[in-house]
Amino acid sequence: MKILSISDLITNSSSEVFCIITPEDKSMVEDIFAIFDNIFGYNQEYEVTPVVTCDEDCVSIDLPYHFSEYSEFFRAGVEKIMGDYFTNFKIEYPN
User: What is 6-92's CATH topology?
Assistant: First the structure.
């Protein structure tokens, strides 16, 4: 397992936030969530699969640490999907 921070040791974390998608129009959050939920599923196992979560103003995608070598693949996919279906959004990649 790859340890990225001291909080990983404390929380026994096995995944990290890959990206946070924030649309300008907050009414689009559910639509964005629905697309990625169909692709990745909701509340899957953090250690095994990407996990999509929905907040009132954004959608987050967490990746297990062992997926880090594929981050460019996931980044290209997220950006393509968002560009094809939505406008006026921001994608943040915290790590």
Answer: TATA-Binding Protein (3.30.310)
